[in-house]
Design brief:
single chain, alpha/beta, Rossmann fold, 16 helices
């Protein structure tokens, strides 16, 4: 398939890796910000093909993984109500709350449904006027436009039995939190191509300049990833602080302006908790006050729910690039995909799930 098969060409990947081996002269620590990139790296064994001087650490770019425990518990409280049809993307159903997950609610008789778009959830609300339909609106900047559009459509159509439980998070504040930490090890970033496709990368140069680290906007196929790594390493080796865009076939500096416009129309920046990390100022989006009637937290009065993480789970350290999944004493023991302690073992983009699926119990 054009624009896919050529980016999986093993010979092209080997060529970039050979150039990378010739380029690197000293140790560097790079963080891929996106969980989709993490899975591609581990699945294709890219980290094992890199020069020994290059270490990849895994960032908080998995929206399921960073959805805070208390918001999962709010979702469970809402989904348990008999008048509610609770809708969500499928990867949220197994994310553990304090006591149970959405699958458990469904098994107990709750009406929990998997949808593939927030507009599917809106259609369910239109078809079931006697029920309250709630959509679990999670994600980074990539899912925000569609979630915002469902709110816009619901208000325009006068659908009063639809609401959203919002857990949107933003990449730039997370970068600030990681790079500003006294424990930070990251020397360069592989920026998430799908986020940049929506938002552009105009926000990143000031971050790069502030912390004196380079960034490379990176896609998700093997060739994309090694090209992103090579671009970042070249900048590091040259001592240049820049943001480069090897993923130009999908990303522009300014991004998708209509998508950004609808996000700004529906959401306001707000403080947000990140699971395992804690609160990051102005790192999320919340509904604007004029859309309060569609805010599920307000509609079902669950704002005051507070929860505590499992003390065994080190997902927060993994999401900040401080540790790897195999550093966790519970990994593959108390914590497995069937019995997860944290979301990083559940999500299709979680680092722990990737290490477990592809047999990375030990460090290579």
């Amino acid at each position: 398939m054009k624009y896919i098969s050529e980016y999986r060409d093993a010979e092209l990947v080997k060529g970039v890796l050979n150039e990378l081996h010739k380029t690197v002269t000293r140790p560097w620590v790079l963080m891929e910000i996106c969980g989709g990139q993490t899975h591609a790296i581990v699945r294709h064994g890219i980290d094992q093909l890199l020069p020994k001087q290059i270490e990849l650490v895994h960032g908080p770019g998995c929206p399921v993984c960073v959805t805070p425990l208390e918001l999962i518990d709010k979702a469970l409280a809402i989904a348990s109500r008999p008048e509610v049809i609770f809708t969500s993307y499928g990867d949220m159903l197994r994310v553990p709350g304090s006591q149970q997950d959405l699958f458990s609610i469904r098994a107990a008789g709750g009406d929990v449904r998997v949808v593939y778009s927030p507009l599917d959830a809106l259609k369910i609300a239109q078809d079931n006027p006697d029920k309250e339909v709630v959509f679990f609106a999670i994600g980074f900047e990539t899912t925000a436009p569609a979630n915002a559009m469902s709110v816009l459509q619901a208000k325009a159509l006068g659908v009063e039995n639809y609401s959203v439980l919002v857990s949107h998070v933003r990449v730039p504040p997370a970068m600030h939190a990681i790079l500003g930490s006294p424990l930070n090890r990251v020397q360069g970033f592989l920026a998430a191509g799908h986020v940049c496709a929506v938002m552009g990368y105009w926000e990143y140069p000031p971050i790069a300049e502030k912390y004196k680290i380079p960034m490379a906007v990176t896609g998700f196929e093997p060739l994309d990833i090694v090209e992103g790594i090579l671009a970042a390493v070249k900048l590091l080796e040259a001592g240049r602080v820049e943001v480069t865009n090897p993923y130009s076939r999908a990303v522009t500096l300014e991004g998708n302006l209509p998508a950004q416009k609808v996000i700004q129309q529906i959401f306001l920046e707000c403080d947000r908790k990140w699971r395992g990390i804690g609160a990051i100022p102005m790192s999320g989006w919340c509904l604007r006050p004029e859309y309060a009637a569609l805010n599920a937290e307000l509609k079902f009065d669950v704002e005051q729910i507070r929860s505590e993480e499992s003390p065994l789970c080190i997902a927060g350290e993994i999401l900040q690039g401080l540790k790897k999944p195999h550093d966790c004493p519970a990994f593959g023991k108390e914590c497995t995909p069937e019995r997860p302690l944290g979301a990083t073992m559940v999500s299709d983009e979680g680092a722990c799930a990737a290490y477990y699926k592809y047999g990375r119990q030990l460090e290579f």
